[in-house]
Structures are given as C-alpha cells and as structure tokens.
Specification:
about 40% strand; Thiol Ester Dehydrase, Chain A; five-stranded antiparallel β-sheet; alpha+beta; 5 strands
C-alpha cells in the first residue's frame, strides 16, 4: 500500500531568522516545523481553538529528535514536509523535513501528546485519529 504524499508548507527565510553569518539560527527550524504541523492539522479540518473550547484537549510537543544537515540561508525558499509515522491513543509521531529544492536541510521526528488543560494525558479526538490512521 502506498502512503499519501506528505503535507507541504512553504516559507521564505527572512533576515530576522538568521545569525550573523546569514545562516538560519538553529532554533528557528523548530518554529518552521511548528507552523507546518499547525497547517497540517488545519488541512485535516481540525480547529485547535475549537477543540480546546469544546473538549479541553490541547496538543503539546513531548519529544523532538532533530538533525541539522545543511544550512539554509537568508532569502532561501524552503518547504517543510509533514507526515505521520506512528499513532497511539494519546500520541502522534510525525516526520518533518525542511527542504531547499531537493536539498534536505533539517529533519526531525516529533512526538505530539494530547493533553487536558491541567496537563493530564487525553485521548486524541476520534475523527482526528481516523484521519491520521488513513495517512499512515
């Protein structure tokens, strides 16, 4: 069975994203992949603000394994890909990559946990789980 193509999110590197050498500051890759995950979730039709208001469930990053492979620089056009790789009752693991053309600049394996507002684990919403399961 073939897997659907990963979600794609485009962005441009601005001056504020770089260090003195004009290279993307390492922590900004985490910002890029956060934005891409939010757009991925939105593309599945899940409104996180509404989810919190109706159920009290929020998403939080539990773990990030990051590889910095090649520097991105000021004014580069980048694409962040996001693909789910593992699904549990309260957790989702996603593979995210930051590409400049065909060059892989950054790769991460990100574990997201569903939590109640008080920080206790919560089940991922049923429809969201079903939508993700169809992508794995």
């Amino acid at each position: 069975m073939s897997h659907p193509a990963p979600h794609r999110f485009g962005l441009r590197v601005y001056y504020e994203d770089t260090d003195l050498a004009g290279i993307v500051y390492y922590a900004n890759y985490l910002r890029y992949i956060e934005r891409a995950r939010s757009e991925f979730v939105r593309s599945l039709g899940l409104d996180q603000v509404q989810l919190k208001a109706q159920t009290g469930v929020v998403f939080a990053v539990r773990r990030v394994e990051a590889d910095y492979l090649m520097p991105a620089r000021f004014d580069d056009e980048l694409v962040v890909t996001t693909a789910p790789v593992k699904l549990g009752g309260a957790r989702l693991v996603m593979r995210q990559e930051v590409l400049r053309g065909t060059d892989l600049c950054f790769a991460a394996l990100v574990t997201i946990a569903a939590l109640q507002e008080d920080g206790r684990p919560a089940r991922l919403p049923a429809q969201f789980r079903a939508d993700i399961a169809a992508l794995i």
